[in-house]
Amino acid sequence: MSLNLKPLGNRIVVEPLEQEEKTSAGLYLPDTAKEKPQQGVVLAVGPGDRDEKGERIPMDVKVDDIVLFAKYAGTEVKIDGKKILIMRENDLLAIVEK
Amino acid sequence: MSLNLKPLGNRIVVEPLEQEEKTSAGLYLPDTAKEKPQQGVVLAVGPGDRDEKGERIPMDVKVDDIVLFAKYAGTEVKIDGKKILIMRENDLLAIVEK
Amino acid sequence: MSLNLKPLGNRIVVEPLEQEEKTSAGLYLPDTAKEKPQQGVVLAVGPGDRDEKGERIPMDVKVDDIVLFAKYAGTEVKIDGKKILIMRENDLLAIVEK
Amino acid sequence: MSLNLKPLGNRIVVEPLEQEEKTSAGLYLPDTAKEKPQQGVVLAVGPGDRDEKGERIPMDVKVDDIVLFAKYAGTEVKIDGKKILIMRENDLLAIVEK
Amino acid sequence: MSLNLKPLGNRIVVEPLEQEEKTSAGLYLPDTAKEKPQQGVVLAVGPGDRDEKGERIPMDVKVDDIVLFAKYAGTEVKIDGKKILIMRENDLLAIVEK
Amino acid sequence: MSLNLKPLGNRIVVEPLEQEEKTSAGLYLPDTAKEKPQQGVVLAVGPGDRDEKGERIPMDVKVDDIVLFAKYAGTEVKIDGKKILIMRENDLLAIVEK
Amino acid sequence: MSLNLKPLGNRIVVEPLEQEEKTSAGLYLPDTAKEKPQQGVVLAVGPGDRDEKGERIPMDVKVDDIVLFAKYAGTEVKIDGKKILIMRENDLLAIVEK
């Protein structure tokens, strides 16, 4: 999938991972989360928000990170038939280490 | 279309793109977004908000950028029969690269 | 109409323009906005809000500017039989250039 | 009426003017505002709020100013049978010039 | 009444004055305020809130001041059979001068 | 009761005092507060919140202080059969002097 | 349990302790908290939030701390069949000392 989205501010583009896929971290999401995935891979990272002096605050995630995020976080967009999410970095809960 | 609007603060003027138009980025918007477009072209860009010292914070988008924005973002205005939207830059999610 | 109102802070006094009047910018407002005008002419401009050091933040609009503003913005007052609105500058969306 | 109230912070004491009185500015208030006056004369002015360094922010109105304020602004108190209002300066919309 | 309360932050301890008592300022409270008094005498004053550098912001009222406060302001406590109120200084509207 | 809780931030641990116990300050709480005590003794004090530079803001109460707090303030925890409350210092109204 | 989660910002990963387990601190949680545990062990700690200059604010808890947290705090995730919670440090009430 060639990605053509450049997220703004502290936003990131995430491709949700299907719940059935067990990650190398052995992580499963609880049954109550079945409708919406809570795990995904980072496809693109924004330049970061600006602090009160107008300077960029560095982002803590990078492309290819596996991340956990709260249910219903982000806005859904479809690219080449795949659903992706655009959300703010502070909607992310944790990075799943590989 | 000659545009005569000069947006204030961190506002931008966006002309929504019809969902049927496939952009060069191969981007489609999901079915649930049919009523309101989520993609548009930037027609005008405000001077930016002022930080707490009264200086302008630079804008991250420019005229002719293709942008994604949240459903229901912005205020609708009609110019020469075309619907345009005026919204704040932080209502924008991402720039669609060409 | 002689105006005798001196707006406080970042407030401005706006005389709404009738929707039927087409401005020189060829701007029309959508049908859904019929009850309340969204376009007006600036009659008076406040001195600006104070920043956290107590200094005035300069205003971005001036008397005679044609402005767009959100529906229901401002407080209605009647002067010599005409309805005017007093609103804050950040309720303004854009300046309509002549 | 001898006034014995010293307002605190950025508060002011206002005596509402009856709607029937046409001011020298030829200002009338709209019919929908009949129940509560929106115009008054300033009887007393507080010392101003403190900024984040603890210094006073100067007030923009002074005793005897005729002011416009939003409906329902302020707290009603009765002195010698007259109703007066105590409100914050930012509840004021404009000064009516004489 | 010996007072044993030391208010914290910008709080003050106020003993409400009965509405029937006309103060030396000739001040009456409106009928709609009958259930809860809006006037009282200051019994104790806290050390003041801290500003963002951790320094105390000075209080504007002192013990024995007669003050006006908004209905329902503060928390009721009973000392030796008397009802007193503990409230924040910014719940006070004005000092009634003697 | 040996206490094993170290409160975080500006939190304190308070053991509520029964309403029947008259304190040395002769303080009674009003009847409407019967269900939940509003008076207690401080068992532990957190290190204080951090100001915007990351430094600790000193706490105004210390262990063994008798304090008044708003009804429903804090979170209930049971230690060795006794109910204690963990609350933030700004939920405290006053110190009852002994 | 090998943990593979790296929490972001001021988030921590907590494994809730069953209410039946009496900790060495002799701490019991009240009956009204039966549905959701309020006590847990810290499995992982984020790098801390950034202050307004972009520097990290140090965390006050560390791995293996026993902590108390408000009911319903955090987001549930399941790892190897165990339920864990990801929450922000300011959802924590206190550290239970061993």
From TrEMBL, chains A, B, C, D, E, F, G:
Signal peptide: none annotated. The keyword Cytoplasm applies. It comes from the Bacteria. Heptamer of 7 subunits arranged in a ring. Interacts with the chaperonin GroEL. Belongs to the GroES chaperonin family. NCBIfam families: PRK00364.1-2 (NF001527), PRK00364.1-6 (NF001530), PRK00364.2-2 (NF001531), PRK00364.2-4 (NF001533), PRK00364.2-5 (NF001534). Together with the chaperonin GroEL, plays an essential role in assisting protein folding. The GroEL-GroES system forms a nano-cage that allows encapsulation of the non-native substrate proteins and provides a physical environment optimized to promote and accelerate protein folding. GroES binds to the apical surface of the GroEL ring, thereby capping the opening of the GroEL channel. Keywords: Chaperone, Cytoplasm. This is Co-chaperonin GroES. The keyword Chaperone applies. It is found in: Cytoplasm. GO terms for cellular component: cytoplasm. The gene is groES. InterPro entries: Chaperonin_GroES, Chaperonin_GroES_sf, GroES-like_sf. GO terms for molecular function: ATP binding; metal ion binding; protein folding chaperone; protein-folding chaperone binding; unfolded protein binding.
